[in-house]
Amino acid sequence: MDLAARPWVESYAPGVPRSFDVPDGTLSDLLDSSVRTYGAATALEFFGACTTYRALGDAVARGAAGLRSLGVTAGDRVALVLPNCPQHIIAFYAVLRLGAIVVEHNPLYTDRELRHQFEDHGAKVAIVWDRVAPRVQRLPGDIPVTAIVTVDLIRAMPASRRLALRLPVRRARDARAALTTTEKPAGPRAVLPWRDLLRHRPLPHRHPRPAPQDTAVLQYTSGTTGAPKGAVLTHRNLLANAAQGRAWVPGLEAGRETVYAVLPMFHAYGLTLCLTFAMSIGARLVLFPRFDVGLVLDAARKSPPTFLPAVPPIYDRLAAGAAERGADLRSIRFAISGAMNLPQSTVQTWEAATGGYLIEGYGLTETSPVAAGNPIGPTRRPGTVGVPFPGTDVRIVDPEDTTRDRGPGEAGELLIRGPQVFGGYWRKPDETHAALLDEGWFRTGDIVRMDEDCFISIVDRIKELIITGGFNVAPSEVEDALRTHPDVTDAAVVGLPRAGGGEDVAAVVVLAPGASLDAEALRSFCRTALAAYKVPRIIVQAEDLPRSLIGKVLRREVRTQLLDDGPRAEGKGDNR
Prior knowledge:
Blueprint: H1 27-38, E1 42-46, E2 49-52, H2 53-69, E3 77-81, H3 86-97, E4 101-105, H4 111-121, E5 125-129, H5 133-137, E6 147-151, H6 159-164, H7 170-179, E7 190-193, H8 194-197, E8 215-220, E9 230-234, H9 235-248, E10 258-261, H10 268-280, E11 284-287, H11 293-302, E12 307-310, H12 312-325, E13 334-337, H13 344-354, E14 357-363, E15 370-373, E16 387-388, E17 393-398, E18 401-405, E19 412-417, H14 429-435, E20 442-450, E21 456-461, E22 466-468, E23 471-473, H15 475-483, E24 488-497, E25 503-511, H16 519-527, E26 538-541, H17 555-565
Helix pairs in contact: 1-2, 2-3, 9-10, 11-12, 12-13
């Protein structure tokens, strides 16, 4: 197979371009274009409160002027610690308008997690959810944050909802407490409310703008293979990935789509599909501070969604909730799943409920994030993550010798090259050198196979491979086998160090209601599908598995918990 010829374009859906040119400009230009084109149309909707593109553009210009008054200049980092809300969109583009760099943070981070990242990026200004402000104030004095801008989510809601949240009843008090706080973030750092930031005159159009090659975002990796690192994403990277996404869905109608932001925008997946892609097509972006089936279905009655990026558990819960309530999801023509394996059962249930397509894509923070996807059409191939995006090159190589390419059907490490590939890790030259090879090839750390038609199937992460008895064990293979047992609803498999060297295969399983753990029966079941060395030697039951906010199982946390708990005699077995 001649990968240089990009043979995968033959599997593209009709209307998807076979070649791709990166648009000129920056993310600031992207928003300016949408403001000019769709000015009177709704850009943002939050609990029913709507903001037009013209009003969004004005708020961004005022926010940029407010940040400039705080001393923010080109190249400075500005930390955003926000859930999905209109202020998040405004802050993101206001920072970029100055040529400064957005650093996204999960607002549920612990003090320790926040400290690590603030020490790393050195932001002087932080725009934060008011419930998080006390945590930012508690950061050590040697961290250079001098100003904290606090965001009250309730102020972005319609007046009727704000009044309802002030009712002297427990339900209203609880809802209000989940959205805002009365705690004052006392400390040495200056604090000002978000509304004060927007009281400035709009930043003049003549103010210097960023360049395409400038850094736009520092997006921290999840840390599943080590300490989180800041991936440096340029304006060109993110602009290219938004354009690749538009090209991948030829049925999109600019100015007429409604995109639901149920994914957190501080995650690379939510950032690109909502903050940039949706804005680039003049979509109505309906924002949810957290995923809630009831909130989504209620919003769908007023503003029916047409495009939904999410993860498999969200599709399962929405389909079940809609069936229970008799809600209509048939407005959703396009749904894209990422971050984890998409079960065929989820696809079937979702497509029966909506009549639209649900396809699986693939990407990483370092690829802005989307690098491949299943075609939106009859050529899709469930069970794979599809084919490379327009303008994207891939290679499958020997992970021990990246100069040696693997053939069709052979497992190897996936390398990616394209305009969406990041520029390296923030202030980590050694890690950057290890990840980026000559000629712009990025080592994903994922083991994949590519078939004759260039569809890619994920085998596993290199760093999560288990070495037992001199053999490599892919955790996902063992997990898949366990999940086919009728008593097992979910499973996570990791390697635990063995006293004599090597590792034991250990599994944590979530059982179906009413089932009880029979470790030996599970091992016997696994032996029918797996070689003996792959069968879990340790099997432990859990009520649930640790997951990221987008629902991905965190194997590293599973492993840490097992090591902290020590060996469980009832779960041990001999696979010889």
